[in-house]
Specification:
Oligomer: single chain
CATH architecture: Up-down Bundle
Distance between the termini: 22 Å
CATH class: Mainly Alpha
Shape: elongated
CATH superfamily: MFS general substrate transporter like domains
Structural class: mainly alpha
CATH topology: Growth Hormone, Chain: A
Largest sheet: none
Order of helices and strands: HHHHHHHH
Strand content: under 5%
Number of domains: 1
Helix content: over 70%
Radius of gyration: 20 Å
């Protein structure tokens, strides 16, 4: 695969880099939400593993619906820039609202936020890949697309690992501070909703608060990523589709 594809004639290296970075940032936020939201639903709302997994359906439905409708609108308008700008802004608002969820919040709130997050992701991700393709030589579209996809996978993995380390550290310090030493609490690596439900009431409440706080902190930490992604999408050129 010719790695320096974006520097070849007919390519716009600046746009390629901007779009690829935005894809990494937004993809990290998407994977963080998909990874940690089920745990949040289990610890904050007592949902089962199956139910918490099904609660991701609103996000997936929003993604499918917005990517389909957004694709039709992009074709009709003839320009793509509005979609990632709007989508990233909506996703940032949704993630921020999810970071405010507590054990006393109605389940309808995170469900609505997941729909918003899905809508934002659906509007943002595919048009950004379109930006990569529009600013690459026609003969190297496959290489450019695969390079951007590879960057997304690697960047998302690194970002998710970093956020996971922060969450584990936050959870360990929170348990050490908030839970009495006289109570035997499982370690962070083996802490499950089932084990937490068997703890004494006061301890169980404290553990749930620490776990929920750690998860919402992680979601809050992804908000700046999306805001940076929003700034990057604003820098993209509003290239007409008929130009390529």
């Amino acid at each position: 695969m010719p790695l320096p594809v974006p520097r070849q004639p007919g390519a716009n290296f600046r746009v390629f880099v901007l779009a690829a970075v935005a894809i990494v940032l937004i993809g990290t936020a998407q994977m963080t939400a998909a990874t940690y939201l089920p745990s949040l639903m289990q610890f904050a709302f007592g949902a089962s593993a199956t139910s918490s997994g099904l609660l991701l359906f609103p996000m997936m439905a929003g993604t499918i619906a917005s990517s389909t409708v957004g694709g039709h609108l992009i074709t009709r308008v003839g320009r793509y820039k509005w979609a990632p700008v709007l989508g990233t802004a909506v996703a940032a608002v949704a993630v921020f609202l999810l970071s405010t969820v507590t054990a006393g919040t109605s389940v309808a709130v995170p469900t609505a936020c997941m729909v918003l997050l899905g809508i934002g992701m659906g509007l943002a991700m595919q048009p950004l890949m379109m930006a990569v393709q529009l600013n690459s030589p026609p003969k190297d579209l496959g290489a450019a697309t695969s390079t951007a996809t590879f960057a997304q996978r690697v960047g998302t993995s690194i970002g998710l690992a970093g956020l996971g380390a922060v969450f584990t550290s936050r959870l360990a310090s929170g348990l050490a501070t908030e839970v009495s030493d006289s109570v035997d609490v499982p370690g962070t690596s083996s802490l499950t909703p089932g084990l937490v439900s068997d703890l004494p009431a006061d301890t169980r409440s404290a553990v749930q608060d620490v776990f929920t706080g750690g998860l919402t902190d992680i979601l809050l930490a992804t908000t700046p990523l999306l805001l940076i992604g929003l700034l990057i999408t604003l820098l993209l050129p509003n290239t007409p589709l008929e130009d390529r």
